[in-house]
Amino acid sequence: MEYNGRIVAIGIVGLFNLLRYFYYHQYLELPFRANFFILTTIFLAIAYWCGKQFDNVKYYSEKDYLTDTYNRRTIEQSFQKIAKMYRRENLKLGVIMMDLNRFKEINDTYGHHKGDELLIHLAVIIKKFVKKNDIVARWGGDEFLILVPDCKNNFERVYIQGLQKVLANERFDEFPSVGASVGFAIYPDDGQNFQELIQIADGAMYREKKSRS
Questions:
Q1: What is the 3-state secondary structure (H, E, C) of 108-156?
Q2: What are the CB-based long-range contacts (under 8 Å, 24+) for 155-160?
Q3: 187 pLDDT tier (thresholds 50, 70, 90)
Q4: In the chain, pLDDT over 90 holds for what percent of residues?
Q5: 93: part of which helix (H) or strand (E)?
Q6: pLDDT tens digit sequence for 137-169
Q7: Is 175 helix (H, G, I), strand (E, B) or coil?
Q8: Residue 85: its pLDDT value, please?
């Protein structure tokens, strides 16, 4: 979680009290009393609390509560910003769709609580694999979406196959049959807008899923 709200709030209150200090001391020539520092401490504590509430609201408006990845709305906004910049700079953006195989069967057999645990574990695996500037989001249910900025010509061979290898090598003691299917599209080669790229990546993902069944 970022601390921008707390930093800004404490900074504003700190600056206000610094100006108050100079005003009292330089212009009014008033002696400082203990209550000045007590009030300053109280103001800073209130500022911290207010900033924390702002940070919490911002965090949960951007994140998926279960997997601690970004949510659908946030990743759509991220795509629009990146695509606008990449259009000018002639760069490519990878869009990866992936979901668990037999997830409904797992939920039915082991219960939704175990299904949630599996999604959390999968999110951890993905976040360990991706690079620093990649953006991971839970697209819905057991589907995850990854944006890969500035992807290269060897994107499929290096990145996609690397991700598939990591997923294939992961072992779940309780769920021996778990696997994941992956599909991808590249902006702007495969499409000019987000929905078009999602459809292409989603279609590739389901073709892979079907070939494994």
A1: HHHCHHHHHHHHHHHHHHHHHHCCCCCEEEEEECCEEEEEEECCCCCHH
A2: 155/92, 155/94, 155/184, 155/186, 156/184, 159/94, 160/96, 160/184
A3: very high
A4: 38
A5: strand 93-100
A6: 999 889 999 999 998 888 888 899 898 888 888
A7: coil
A8: 92
CA 184 to each of CA 77, 166, 193: distance values in angstroms, whole numbers, following the listed order: 19, 16, 14
pLDDT of residue 86: 92
How long is the chain?
A: 213
CA 88 to chain centre: 25
Q: Is the separation of the CB atoms in 206 and 183 below 8 Å?
A: yes
Q: What is the mean pLDDT of residues 65-79?
A: 92
Residues of the chain by 3-state class (helix, strand, coil), percent to 5? 60, 15, 25
The overall longest dimension of the chain from CA atoms, in Å, is: 82
CA dist 213 and 209 (Å) reads 6
Hey, what are 94's tokens? 């990878």
Q: In 3D, which of 126, 97, 123 has the Cα closest to residue 184?
A: 97
Model-level pTM? 0.75
